[in-house]
């Protein structure tokens, strides 16, 4: 089993706040892993470091044999780390096809000069991009809305388009940040099925942040649990579910919330 991502003692400080503290985890190729934890636990900050959005304050990350400290943040997508965002980050006035095409930009090597001198290469890249986008549209079962303007689509459909855009960059590792929050049960089940197919049919390893415990428990191979920036547990869904530290982290959060409400 090949380790695709290794995170060692990763930390991130925002001024005096330790958002992520000494977190270590490994993701094996072909796994679906989840990162869970109460609000403010540091999950998104961890994802932002793994996807190059934030530079860590300390620690080390290795992806597919490459030390990520040596990779420019703008190259993370090109080396195979794709992601979706907690809040939709789509071009609302663009069509579904146009939005998914933007995910291909990391694969376009041609620049303006190329476009003038080597028209052939630009043209073949364009054809490859279009073919990839068509394949994704079929895979995500969104042929019927391919030419629709994204802003007119339902939230669930927009989330599917965002997933398509992340797939367009042909990631080896796909980071999914709260894909199903705000979705109804049917949309949630669709996403769970797509995540399984992304791993099984496209061979892409998945690391997801998720609050919806049913999807976490149903489809994860491994679960990593954060609380107050630290990793407090790791294991199979069944192991994590019966870990007292995990129950306490969630109950503690609810108790604090209840105290705030009562105050
Ligand atoms: N850019 C920032 N500047 C300052 N503090 C930040 C910043 N980003 C996150 N934080 C703080 O870091 C901590 C961890 O936040 P983070 O968003 O990573 O948690 P989370 O587990 O993803 O939470 P949620 O489940 O609510 O999305 C929080 O206390 C948050 O307020």
UniProtKB/TrEMBL annotation:
GO (cellular component) term, any one: plasma membrane
Keyword set, alphabetical order: ATP-binding, Nucleotide-binding, Transport
Signal sequence extent: none
TM segment ranges: none
Domain of life, source organism: Bacteria
InterPro entries: AAA+_ATPase, ABC_AA/LPS_Transport, ABC_transporter-like_ATP-bd, ABC_transporter-like_CS, BCA_ABC_TP_C, P-loop_NTPase
Keyword Transport: yes
GO terms, molecular function: ATP binding; ATP hydrolysis activity
CDD domains: ABC_Mj1267_LivG_branched
ABC transporter domain span: 5-253
Pfam families: ABC_tran, BCA_ABC_TP_C
Described function: Involved in beta-(1-->2)glucan export. Transmembrane domains (TMD) form a pore in the inner membrane and the ATP-binding domain (NBD) is responsible for energy generation.
Similarity annotation: Belongs to the ABC transporter superfamily.
Annotated protein name in UniProt: ABC transporter ATP-binding protein
Organism this protein belongs to: Bradyrhizobium jicamae
